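@channel sequence for tomorrow's demo:
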Amino acid sequence: MDSPPIKPPRGVKPVKETSGLLMSVIRTLSASETNEQRDREKAKLEADFKVCDQKLDRLVSHHENDLTQVMRLFGTISQSVTENRDKIHTVKEMLQDCKKKLRCKRDELKALWMEGLEYKYMLQLLQEIEKMNNIPSQLATHMSHKRFLHATKLLVEAVKLGKDPLEGVESLKELSQELEQRKEQLHLQILSELKNILYTKPCQHILTLRRQGSGRDGFLIHSPLQRSMKGRLSGRNRSNVSRNLMDELSKVGSKDLFSDDFNLEEDLENLNIDENNRQYVSILVKSLCLLEKLPYTLDELVREMQASLTHIIQKSTQHVIDYAENVDSKLALKELINILFDQFKEIADSHLIFLKWVDKGIKIHRINLKPYGLQYYWSQVQEVLQIFLNDYLDLQNMSTALQTDKTVESGDISAYFSRRKQQSKKKSLFKFEGSSSALSLSNALKSSKKEKVLICSSHPNNILVVFIPFMCFTEDIEQMLGMAHASCSLYGYITQHISNVYLKRKSEEIIEQVENAFKAADAWKNTVLLDVSAGYKPLLVSTVTVERCIREWKAILQSLPLYSEKIADYSVNVLKEYKDTCYAAYRGMVQPHSEDKRICSAAWLKDEDINRFLKSLPNWLNLKAQQEYHARSERGRKILRDQPSEEESPEDVRMRNRKEAEILASNLGEGGVSSSEILSDISLLKELATLQESMEWFSVRMFQYTSEFRLEPSRLSPPKPDNNSHNDLMPPVSSSTLHQLTSIAQEFDELANTCLMLLHLEVRVQCFHYLLAQAHYNKDSHEPDPKVSELSKVLANVDEAMTSSLHPRKCKYIFEGLGHLIAKILISSAQYIQVINDAGIQRMCRNIFALQQTLTNITMTRELALDHARHYFELFFLTPEEILNGIVDKGPEFSELEYMNALQLLNRSQKNKDSSSVTVHLERLSDILGEVGVTV
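structure tokens (generated this afternoon):
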């Protein structure tokens, strides 16, 4: 069975296999010449036709059913088409009929249509009138819940209706005017809300955090500022809220913060819409854009910004005053500054959010406006803080004083502090102070001054309290604005004031105090006892005054660490002048006469060899070690070694004292010392002792003060969280200035050492003066020689003066070893005695006993060296042979020279002098000592 025919695709023509057959037949018939050819062609065509007819019959029979079905469907479709044609014809006839009828009623229908439009417009007007009447109540509801955006849209729409479609409605004129007034007032209310969000809320938020963090009882004690100032030295980190806010604002794609299309809607169900500040600010900004009052609002904010910041300062000041009862004013001022800085940073965050929404509103609503930036806000903050500093630093009075002193040269300190000639008052004919206008003006000025509340009295020294917090704040401003270091105007204002005004005037004040201290008539006599403990002795009032001035510089250094170089320079100037004065005072004490009558002990100290010898002795080294230990203990430093022992073996003490006595005796034993070469005035010795104690005490403080300039990290700020604290280092002091300070401190210490060694030498020089003078005094008496008694009295007076003026260890240094020296002088004096008898021996023993008793009362130890001297004079009760036999039996007790002096004195004291016998005795002495050896 053949497959049924397939309809060719649409657009494709079937191939005509016999397309040229008919034309071929026609050409053949036309070209044939005979009928036979035509008959052949005809027969051929008939045969082909039969074949085709048979094929067609076969195909028809084969597709009979399909053809039947197709014909039936064709008939159905043809009938349906015919019926639809009839219906369309009927519809056309009906439409033609309607058209004819509508043409007949056209005017009537037009009138009805126009009437319908009028009724529709009147209904719309009635709805708008009803809406206008409901707007006041809706507006009141929205305003009560602070839904400013809804209120703005209502007012804008109502004013638009009242001006255009309902302008001719007489009953709505008053309502329209009222709504226009409400529209003008609405932007003022929005402006007030903006001020509340930008200024009031951040300030209240900071104050609430402060109260929660400290409480009234612990106010200022545990505040973050106190902790930062003790540790710093920082705290310049923003609060967690501020940091989180800045992180959110840095996310540009954060669509919950700043919507791209500015399509904002208020939640009518939210009764506290102002809790979300970011959303609330966006609502207010969009409302201002709809009211077309955004430029006016920005102008008002710019115009009133400084007044708003000033008001915040006053409110915060009053808050601190209310909560800072019975608190030190400096701590209260620090707390106020900390609160203000936190508030200004919080306000900056609020302004940043506001300006972001303003930029969005300007872009969306295409407003030709350039708003202010955070740079302008921080410039206003700096101006307000400059006024704040003017109030607390009393700059107005200082500037007035500077203008008055303009004619005085800066280098002439005495001229600056000298009493100026008062100008004669010019008498005026009449004045207006008592007039009503002048009185009202003065009352207004007084009331304006009373409005400004200060937490403490205005004083230039307040800069010491505010400097470090203000420097930290200026660094924060520079970091937030991306400015270079020290480019902030507030930074320049403060540094210029400190450099050009404060430090200069403070230096002049301190120089005046120091000059008044040491130029007083009794500057080197008046003393004060700073501590009642045994280790402290009276100090010169002038020294204490100068030290107090240095402590003032130290406090200034700790408060103004950036000015260490200037402070060091000013300190050097003060200390140099005081050092020169102290050395001049010392020279006035030790050189009361002309140059040719110099004090022996002072002249000796100028000899470098003697000075070096005294400092090399163990007693001096031990004394300095003890002083160093106590100085470190006083500074509170950790001691890395044990306290130097004050105990020495008796043999060591005897050997060093003997060495010192021999050196002194070799220099002073021959010529003697006159009365003009000693300091016989005890009060002068006491002044020297007080000077020594004061200079030593002051030098320790000076070394401590100098060490302050060697500290690298300043107490300006603690390390930041990002560990970027390289900007918080104290500027280093130049090596030359530091060397000057150190050398001045060393010179004060050297002056103290000189005074102590002079007292040490002076006591010994006076022993030579009195004991060598009595060697020529030979009188039978049962009392000590007058010179010995005088020396005992002098030693007792010196001990009394030194005990009340010097530390016990220094008194020990002065009097220790004095017995060895006296014994050496007395023993050596034997060579100057012409004749000695039993009475003379007893007198010498009484002299020794008197001196021994005096020294024992001073040193509280038995002076064994004087027992040694007494034993020496007891030798004169023996004969030369007995002395020599004693050496053989017991060994030598004295030196060969001392034995020789004794043998010679015994020989001189005999009635029958024999020079040969003394020669024999001396030769035998030499032989004996050569055999047994000298062990003394």
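heads up for whoever presents: The two ends are 163 Å apart (CA to CA).
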